[in-house]
């Protein structure tokens, strides 16, 4: 306050003050570098991909405008093609030669697990958003990884519980025949039985598939009220499309266990109406989410998925932690990230746990009927808010070695 | 009544679905067989051209307001013309070289075409509605058969056997077959062989695009829909005998049925069963079931 009245001569000194003050952020090589490593052209490029890069850039721009940091921030990106070996090599190269401080997005579990291990060895932060499997914060957790938007525990748990509560007691699964599908089926079956429902059976389809009519016919013959789709991406999309064609819906209902708004957008409401799904973010939930999402829309011409919104939120929180910690050293930043609550358009009172899981509320959504949708991307009714503590694996059941019991 | 513990009704349903998928295999492998027979080109771009057919239908509907029936005729013509352009500008330089060059060129083309569509449309693709006239279905007692699927089987059979008839039983077809045997001699009789080759490639490509339009209401229209299918279709062609017209049709339908049966008894194996059969056939009859040893 004193400085202000000293007049214009001092103004220049004031401008320089942050750089000279002892509290200046001790950032290695004077720059914080974020590397967005994602699927830029493959199966997951719509739900993360170029949108993830754009969201990261938005977070950086907003952070600079609002927090006026005394360090520079740079964003670079690369296509990991969903391959673990390419990802690990890229991460190594980025950290060793490009001096990257944090790696962002990491869609597909295998790439996330590979990169978070490399980053941890070299004491760098991984901000995982695209990948969903639970081992990231469970068996394979480490102290420099944060998992932000969702995981394959939170999604089916919310959906299955709600559907059983609504009367969908008997289930049949159409499951992608690989580790991800199996674990999705198992997690969901557990919840269904625990909530008082019954699992009548399941059929496993080769991955990737294109014609699901045979499997749908088996599901139809089972007489189950609910057909759980334990698959993802194009497989889920084709299952839904063909279920409608064979007159399975709306007699039996479908539950998508891993669905993004990009899937609903590409299928259209006619085929998806009435479906339940769980999401970590919906653009049209309140004024704050709308305001951010509209800015994102301006740049991408699409509404953000929970992964892309989560990338923004995670990156912003990470940069805030650097500013608060006064350094970009990974462990110190991680400590600050755990200490500070996450409060932004994405999460309210979100908390980064010791295992790296960012716990925040999840939303049970039901897809609108075409007649209920009033404007573009008006797709969901939010039926229920699932409190973060119920949505994610409780620490008491955690298999993460960092969790002290 | 049960057969090996499976209710006969479920079995009938699965066989019918197998036949539907077999129709797609038949129509695609027919195009490949025709192209291989006359041009000696292993057309790896077939899947990408099939995808172009599906996107052509979607673009026609969404951007130009052309309905399904118009697309069914117009899209194969347009994509076929693209095919002829490819043949005239690129493929024709490769006829004297080993098969491998044609394969590599068309494979590269497939990647480029797919990449362009992915760039423009994204990976999730677009949804194409079932045409009004064919929505709904028949209740067959043992299953609900969507009208559209019945249409797919019917029209595929007509197109496949129509093509077979033209090639095996007409004068035009006899030129084609003569060209396959000895192009130089045929040219000596005053037939414009290069033109015939271009038209044949165009026709093979048009068949792929036709299958693409047929597939648009059934599968999500996305840039990789062709590459998922093309490997299976190649296996079909190999089993049927490279270049054999009837072989490709019969094998396409037959393998659809086999796949359908596998899905009843052991669904996990349904993606590999065709390749297992391919292995066995190649061991016992290297020229394929309907092929002739050369």
What are the defining features of this structure?
heterodimer, A: 405 residues, alpha/beta, Rossmann fold, 2 domains, 5-stranded parallel beta sheet, 4-stranded parallel beta sheet, 14 helices, 41% helix, B: 294 residues, mainly alpha, ABC transporter involved in vitamin B12 uptake, BtuC, two-stranded antiparallel ribbon, 4 strands, 70% helix
Distance between the termini of chain A: 49 Å
Output the helix-strand order of chain B: EEHHHHEEHHHHHHH
CATH level 1 name of chain B = Mainly Alpha
The coarse overall form of chain B would be globular
Largest interface: A-B, 39 and 42 residues
The CATH architecture of the largest domain in chain A comes to: 3-Layer(aba) Sandwich
Number of helices of chain B: 11
What is the beta-strand fraction of chain B?
Answer: under 5%
Overall number of strands of chain A: 14
Catalogue the unreliable spans of chain B.
none
User: Which value, in Å, is the CA radius of gyration of chain B?
Assistant: 19 Å
Question: How many structural domains can be distinguished in the coordinates of chain A?
Answer: 2
Count of DSSP H/I helices of chain A: 14
Task: State the secondary-structure class of chain B.
Answer: mainly alpha
Read across the widest sheet of chain B, the strand sequence of neighbours is 1-2
Overall CATH class of the largest domain in chain A: Alpha Beta
Rg of chain A over CA atoms, rounded to whole Å, is 22 Å
Low-confidence segments of chain A, given as residue ranges, are 1-22
Biggest β-sheet: strands ordered side by side in the sheet of chain A? 2-1-3-4-5
Overall structural class of chain A, as computed from helix and strand content, comes to alpha/beta
Please state roughly what percent of the residues of chain A sit in beta strands, choosing from under 5%, 5-15%, 15-25%, 25-35%, 35-45% or over 45%: 15-25%
């Amino acid at each position: 306050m004193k400085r202000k009245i000293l007049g214009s001569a001092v103004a220049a000194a004031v401008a320089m003050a942050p750089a000279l003050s002892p509290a200046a952020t001790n950032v290695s090589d004077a720059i914080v570098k974020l590397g967005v490593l994602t699927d830029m052209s493959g199966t997951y490029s719509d739900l993360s991909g170029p949108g993830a890069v754009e969201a990261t850039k938005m977070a950086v721009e907003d952070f600079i405008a609002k927090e006026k940091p005394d360090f520079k921030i740079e964003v670079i990106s690369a296509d990991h093609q969903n391959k673990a070996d390419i990802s690990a090599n890229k991460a190594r190269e980025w950290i060793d030669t490009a001096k990257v401080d944090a790696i962002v997005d990491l869609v597909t579990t295998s790439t996330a697990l590979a990169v978070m291990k490399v980053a941890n060895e070299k004491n760098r932060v991984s901000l995982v958003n695209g990948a969903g499997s639970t081992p990231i914060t469970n068996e394979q957790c480490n102290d420099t990884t944060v998992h932000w938007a969702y995981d394959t525990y939170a999604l089916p748990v919310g959906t299955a519980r709600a559907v059983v509560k609504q009367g969908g007691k008997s289930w049949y699964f159409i499951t992608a025949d690989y580790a991800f599908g199996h674990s999705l089926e198992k997690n969901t079956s557990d919840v269904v039985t625990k909530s008082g429902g019954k699992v009548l059976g399941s059929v496993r389809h080769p991955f990737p598939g294109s014609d699901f009519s045979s499997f749908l016919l088996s599901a139809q013959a089972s007489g189950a009220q609910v057909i759980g789709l334990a698959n993802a991406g194009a497989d889920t999309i084709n299952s839904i499309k063909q279920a409608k064609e064979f007159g399975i819906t709306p007699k039996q209902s479908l539950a998508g266990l891993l669905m993004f708004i990009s899937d609903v957008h590409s299928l259209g409401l006619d085929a998806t109406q009435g479906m339940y799904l769980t999401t970590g973010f919906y653009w049209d939930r309140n004024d704050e989410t709308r305001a951010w999402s509209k800015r994102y829309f301006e740049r991408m011409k699409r509404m953000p998925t929970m992964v892309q919104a989560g990338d923004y939120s995670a990156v912003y929180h990470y940069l805030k932690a650097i500013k608060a910690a006064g350094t970009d050293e990974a462990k110190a930043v991680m400590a600050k990230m755990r200490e500070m609550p996450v409060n932004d358009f994405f999460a309210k009172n979100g908390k980064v746990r010791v295992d790296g899981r960012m716990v925040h509320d999840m939303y049970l959504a039901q897809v609108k009927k075409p007649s209920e949708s009033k404007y573009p991307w008006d797709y969901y009714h939010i039926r229920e808010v699932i409190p973060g503590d119920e949505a994610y694996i409780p620490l008491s059941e955690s298999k993460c070695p960092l969790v002290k019991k | 009544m049960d057969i090996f513990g499976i209710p006969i009704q479920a079995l009938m349903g699965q066989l019918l679905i197998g036949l539907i998928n077999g129709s797609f295999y038949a129509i695609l492998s027919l195009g490949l067989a025709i192209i291989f027979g006359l041009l000696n080109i292993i057309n790896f771009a077939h899947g990408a051209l099939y995808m172009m057919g599906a996107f052509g239908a979607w673009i026609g509907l969404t951007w130009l307001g052309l309905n399904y029936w118009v697309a069914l005729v117009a899209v194969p013509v347009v994509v076929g013309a693209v095919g002829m352009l490819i043949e005239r500008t690129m493929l024709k330089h490769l006829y004297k070289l080993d098969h491998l060059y044609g394969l590599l060129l068309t494979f590269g083309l497939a990647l480029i075409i797919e990449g362009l569509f992915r760039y423009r449309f994204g990976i999730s693709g677009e949804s194409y509605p079932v045409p009004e006239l064919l929505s709904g279905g028949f209740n067959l007692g043992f299953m609900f058969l969507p009208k559209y699927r019945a249409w797919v089987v019917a029209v595929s059979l007509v197109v496949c056997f129509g093509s077979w008839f033209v090639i095996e039983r007409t004068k035009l077809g006899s030129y084609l077959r003569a060209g396959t045997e000895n192009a130089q001699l045929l040219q000596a009789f005053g037939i414009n062989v290069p033109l015939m080759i271009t038209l044949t490639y165009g026709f093979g490509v048009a068949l792929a695009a036709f299958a693409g339009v047929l597939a648009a209401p059934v599968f999500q229209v996305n840039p990789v829909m062709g590459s998922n299918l093309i490997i299976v279709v190649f296996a079909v062609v190999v089993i049927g005998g490279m270049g054999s017209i009837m072989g490709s049709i019969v094998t396409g339908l037959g393998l659809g049925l086999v796949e359908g049966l596998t899905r009843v008894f052991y669904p996990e194996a349904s993606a590999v069963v065709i390749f297992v059969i391919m292995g066995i056939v190649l061991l016992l009859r290297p020229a394929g079931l309907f092929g002739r040893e050369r």
